[in-house]
Amino acid sequence: MHENFFHNIKIYYEDTDSGGVVYYANYLKFLERARTEALFSIGYSNKIIKEKFNSLIIVKSCNIEYKKSSQLEDELKVRSFVKSITKTSFFMNQIVTRGDEEIVTAQVHLVFVNTAGRPTKIPDEIYSKFKPYFCDTIKV
What we know:
By secondary structure, the chain is α+β, with helices and mostly antiparallel strands. Helix content is 22%, strand content 38%.
């Protein structure tokens, strides 16, 4: 069984459109914040990864499905876990919920690249800290 990263989001006025509904593009920001907090929870940050490993984590693709809308002052939870991994990249599934309702689901393909933008091996140190968050399917 794999573990999950959790991140809470409260919807503010600035997150909504003229109809009072969360603007669709803001979910991408919520997902990014949740991934950033997941890194912090295992002792890393994007800045540390750049400085220590001369690497960046970039989004290669994102498949997102909007299931329900959220509105001002809703309290959401983002659940994130690593679905699969290769030597240079991994897929992270993220699910945004309001209580028991699924609001958004996303699968994000993240790639480690060097500072020149070329794919690079995920550092063993980071791989081992992410391991408890891997789903059952691991690609080599």
